[in-house]
Design goal:
With 312 residues, the protein is α/β, with parallel strands linked by helices. It is 24% helix and 26% strand. Helix 1 links the parallel strand 9 and strand 10. The two termini are 37 Å apart.
Length: 312
């Protein structure tokens, strides 16, 4: 990604060119934005009013108009962004300039393939490489692990990378850490799946809060409240994001949804109707493939649930 061309620029009232100190946003707390300059020094800044909402991972330009004020005056073009609808249906950007999404799942709270599928659609449509991470494998007996491997084999057959890991077992953990090399990655998933435990293992000095899974509901308690970028070895960066129980797709039309299912993309041009929704239309190549078990019944059912939510 070139950082020479800015997305949004502001100049002062005298139309003078502002100092162009480069930096990256590593956290955002209310009006306070924490940036890191090219020497890895942190600064607390405010943003010019005419800039759009800024998020963790953004590349920006900044300056000090006086010793006590750090101002962000320019947002660089984003190579990618991960967003979802907020409670009012407006765009909520989670992070920007991401190379890969680590979709963390676990046996507790129980693996949710519907949530996993939504993340995979979002990753595919935004061009961000997804990795499926089943965490807390140390809690599983061999038969239980085999059951999860069978459930996730559907995704491996679609060329999604699946990693089995644990913050408490060296061999399982090392496979995860190797995938982070020279990339900006983001940890996403339900509360309680162990994202903070993985982060603590990667960066012991961070001491991220470790959440508990509610014994009453089986759902995780939120511990991370805002996205935060950390630096790892091997020129890697990792963004820890707040845990969520539902993930809505932002700005995805019913027509685009099928593009997030690779097993559909290979067949949908064989459907009789160009605008086929792969629901109950005659001559649908996707439905035929489901009947032949060439496409997973569960994946097709997940697609239909997401489609229904987009059409509401």
């Amino acid at each position: 990604m070139s950082r020479r061309h800015s997305q949004h620029t502001a100049t002062d009232s005298g139309h003078k060119k502002l100092p162009d100190n480069a930096g990256r946003i590593i956290a955002h707390f209310g009006k306070q934005i924490i940036i890191e300059d090219e020497q890895a020094k942190e600064h607390r800044c405010n943003a010019r009013r005419n800039l759009p909402p800024l998020v963790c991972g953004d590349y920006i330009s900044w300056y000090y108009p006086d010793p006590k004020s750090c101002i962000i005056h320019d947002l660089k073009a984003r190579s990618s962004l991960l967003a979802r609808p907020d409670d009012r249906g407006k765009q909520k950007i989670i992070a920007a300039n991401i190379d890969q999404i680590l979709i963390v799942c676990s046996p507790l709270p129980e693996l949710n393939e519907g949530l996993l599928d939504r993340y995979l659609v979002a990753a595919t449509l935004t061009g961000i490489n997804p990795l499926i991470v089943l965490n807390k494998t140390d809690l599983l007996e061999q038969k239980q692990l085999t059951d999860y491997q069978q459930r996730l084999a559907v995704y491996q057959h679609l060329d999604y990378q699946v990693i089995y890991t644990s913050a408490h077992e060296d061999s399982a953990f090392n496979q995860l850490s190797q995938c982070l090399h020279k990339k900006t990655s983001i940890l996403v998933g339900q509360s309680g799946v162990g994202k903070s435990s993985l982060l603590n293992r990667l960066l012991p000095e961070v001491h991220a809060r470790i959440g508990e899974v509610s014994s009453a509901t089986g759902k995780g308690r939120h511990t991370t409240t805002t996205a935060r970028l950390y630096h790892l070895l091997d020129s890697a960066s990792l963004i820890d994001s707040p845990g969520i129980r539902e993930f809505g797709l932002w700005n995805v039309s019913p027509e685009q949804l099928a593009q997030g299912f690779p097993e559909f993309v290979a067949r949908e041009d064989q459907c009789r109707f160009r605008n086929c929704r792969h629901r109950n239309e005659p001559g649908c190549a996707i439905l035929e493939a489901v009947e032949k078990e060439e496409i997973s019944h569960e994946r097709h059912a997940s697609y239909l649930r997401i489609l229904a939510s987009l059409e509401e």
